[in-house]
Specification:
Strand content: 35-45%
CATH topology of the largest domain: Elongation Factor Tu (Ef-tu), domain 3
Structural class: alpha+beta
CATH architecture of the largest domain: Beta Barrel
Radius of gyration: 45 Å
Oligomer: single chain
Number of helices: 5
Number of domains: 4
Largest sheet: 15 strands, mixed
Order of helices and strands: HEEEEEHHEEEEHHEEEEEEEEEE
Helix content: 10-25%
Number of strands: 19
Length: 393
């Protein structure tokens, strides 16, 4: 047996101390990415349309004077409610009273002249029978009597005109409503061409809005049906959205649609009436009108955020039964709150990715987790940007 030298022993120990060499260990496969999914649902969805509207009085009456004279009184408070017949302005009546007195004096003189000619005519009528006067003389008296009668009629007309003009010195409201700013002051000389003020009926108040021509054509039959119903029987189904975003508590009715399409814009004007018992709404306010235009039965709904756009295509990522992803082109309809209505490309119950879309690609295996749908807003779906002619359901 050969002796083991210390140097060889150290070499053997060094070799034994080296780590064992083997094949390179494989990297672990990452787990499938987590994505949030929700199934496509089905529901009967009412679709609404909105349009910007301007409020106006349902009746606006411009107040003018019928005669020229000096204003001596403003009898109303600007911005206040007035009733039919309430006095608004008064013109100095003295010149018109003088004209009436003059006309009445002229009438009295004409009536006296008529009485005298009538007496002469009666006397000549008896004389002509006895031959005391000629027929020609009788005809002359007859003509004098007819002329006197004409003078009386003319004088009576002058009296009537003077009475009317005197009545015009008191300018009253022909309608009930709110009387606006006075454009004249006491002491001004006013004439018929001067606008004194405007009175507007604000209960009900009118909303003016514009419909695109295509929208009008699509709903012409519905509009005609509603327009054929008496105003008081039309449904109150139009909502009014105020400038602060709040919903006006009273609903309105379709009123009428204008006779022509505006050639420059291709739109047609429509009108609705809203109750305004507290006179909160005033002419000139900008609002929105909203009403239901149609209902889609068994509409397929998915969250809007589940849809991505690629060029002119709308796509969703569908998670199949084996948890692999399929890229699907879909056709979208109207929006319904936070959801899209899918008209083609997707069926009820199919799962679509709502969050984690950036991780998805065709055929990728994913780990789907349920997506919690936020509460729907308290409003029906909107078919923008068309405006709804009221009275549709």
């Amino acid at each position: 047996m050969k002796p083991i030298y210390p140097s060889r022993l150290l070499a053997v120990l060094a070799v034994l101390a080296l780590p064992a060499c083997g094949p390179k260990q494989q990297a672990e496969t990452p787990p499938p990415p987590i994505v949030l999914v929700t199934p496509a649902t089905s529901a009967d969805v009412p679709i609404t349309s909105e349009a910007i509207a301007t409020l106006d009085g349902s009746t606006n009456t411009q107040i003018h004077s019928q005669v020229t004279g000096y204003l001596i009184k403003q009898a109303y408070s600007e911005g206040s409610a007035v009733q039919p017949g309430d006095l608004l302005f008064e013109i100095d009546p003295k010149p018109f009273q003088a004209d009436l007195d003059k006309a009445m004096a002229s009438l009295a003189n004409s009536q006296a002249q008529l009485k005298r000619t009538q007496q002469d005519l009666d006397r000549y009528a008896s004389l002509v029978k006895s031959g005391a006067v000629s027929q020609q003389e009788y005809q002359t008296e007859l003509q004098n009597n007819l002329s006197a009668q004409a003078d009386v009629d003319a004088a009576q007309a002058s009296v009537s005109t003077a009475q009317i003009n005197l009545g015009y010195t008191r300018i009253s409201s022909p309608i009930g409503g709110v009387a606006g700013h006075a454009n004249v002051y006491v002491g001004d000389l006013i004439s018929p061409d001067k606008l004194l003020t405007t009175v507007s009926t604000v209960n009900p108040i009118q909303a003016d809005f514009t419909l695109p021509e295509q929208f009008y054509l699509d709903h012409a039959d519905q509009i005609a049906r509603v327009a054929s119903v008496p105003m008081e029987d039309r449904p109150e189904n139009i909502q009014l959205i105020l400038a602060d975003g709040s919903l006006y508590p009273y609903k309105g009715r379709f009123y009428y649609i204008n006779r022509q399409v505006q050639a420059s814009t291709g739109a047609i004007q429509a009108y609705a009436l809203f109750p305004n018992p507290d006179r909160i709404l005033r002419p000139g306010q900008y609002t929105k009108v909203r009403a239901i235009t149609k209902q889609i039965d068994n509409a397929v709904l998915i969250p809007q955020r589940a849809v991505t756009q690629l060029l002119n295509l709308n796509q969703v990522f569908v998670v199949k039964a084996d948890n692999t992803v399929e890229v699907r082109n879909v056709t979208l309809g109207d929006t319904a709150g936070p959801n899209w209505i899918v008209t083609a490309g997707l069926k009820e119950g199919e799962r679509v990715v709502v969050e984690g879309i950036q991780k998805c690609q065709e055929g990728l295996l994913v780990s789907p987790q349920p997506y919690e749908t936020p509460p729907a807003p308290d409003q029906p779906p909107t078919n923008a940007p068309a405006a709804q002619p009221p009275g549709k359901s």
